[in-house]
Design brief:
Elements: E1 7-11, H1 16-28, E2 32-37, H2 46-54, H3 56-59, E3 63-67, H4 73-83, E4 87-90, H5 97-102, H6 104-127, H7 131-134, E5 138-144, H8 168-187, E6 191-196, E7 198-200, H9 209-218, E8 235-237, H10 238-251, E9 257-258
Parallel strand pairs: 1-2, 1-4, 2-3, 4-5, 5-6, 6-9, 7-8
Helix pairs in contact: 1-10, 4-6, 6-8
Length: 259
């Protein structure tokens, strides 16, 4: 079945990956896009607004933004009922591992309860859709490979890797993955889970490793070393990641996960 979408809802659209996704969808599709973001310390409004301001006539009828926290179920329900999306890409999350160690409850609240609210509200919305609309609806849950734990010097993660989260952050994302899987199995909710490695690229928040290291070099400051310095990390360019997300939305198989 060839899928076509008209109205996309992006959660966390002022974040690093979410803003890259919105920029690409605005430039290369005719989708109407609603950006839901609670605006946290890591949000960057200019990451999206920079292309809106230069193309007002092209984008003003296709792009909109609402400041909504996914923990607020009443506002979220009203938004979905009013906007009526046929594609939802869920990127909103607390993502910094070090912050999760300091304030784990913040990650439980946002990544687990926020996702639970979104799933519950979207499921009831989905159930009320007419049959011809139901078959085109998709929910893409964007997660991390950190839910699988750590690797040795050799090997790689796959869709069959067991879940072994090692931080409050990865545990909260693993929990949200399990919630999505439960909605797929219990309610036949048309969802797909993606698990991606570390991203890098334009507009990334300065606390992340690559921009932080570059900033330290420029300012001739000490470069922080994580642990004993022997950790190995995989990286993907953010544009490659969002290309994969779009492909999953249009061509992915429901009830599947993709690394």
């Amino acid at each position: 079945m060839h899928l076509t979408f008209e109205r996309a809802l992006i959660t966390g659209g002022y974040g690093f990956i979410g803003s890259a996704l919105i920029r690409k969808l605005l430039k290369e599709t005719n989708l109407k896009i609603l950006n839901l973001d609670k605006i946290s310390y890591a949000s960057n409004l200019e990451s999206v607004n920079s292309i809106i301001s230069g193309n007002t006539e092209s984008y003003e009828n296709r792009y909109s933004f609402l400041k909504i926290d996914l923990v607020n179920s009443d506002e979220l329900r009203d938004c979905i009922d009013d906007y009526r999306p046929d594609l939802v890409i869920h990127l909103a999350a607390e993502t910094h591992v070090d912050q999760s160690i300091i304030k784990p409850s913040k990650f439980v609240l946002n990544n687990i309860l926020g996702t639970s609210n979104l799933l519950e509200i979207l499921y009831h919305y989905f159930e009320d859709l007419p049959k011809n609309k139901k078959k085109f609806f998709r929910f893409i849950h964007v997660s991390t490979d950190e839910v699988f734990g750590s690797l040795d010097n050799k090997g790689k993660f796959s869709e069959e890797s067991p879940y072994r989260p090692n931080s409050p952050y990865s545990a909260s994302k693993a929990s949200s993955d399990h919630l999505v899987r439960a909605w797929i199995k219990t309610y036949k909710f048309p969802a797909i889970i993606t698990n991606c490695s570390n991203n890098f690229g334009p507009w990334q928040f300065s606390e992340k490793l690559i921009p932080l290291t570059i900033s330290k070099c420029i300012n001739k400051e000490r470069i922080p070393i994580y642990g004993n310095g022997e950790n190995i990390r995989d990286w993907i360019y953010v544009e490659d990641h969002i290309n994969a997300l779009i492909k999953c939305a249009y061509a992915g198989t429901i009830n599947s996960s993709y690394c």
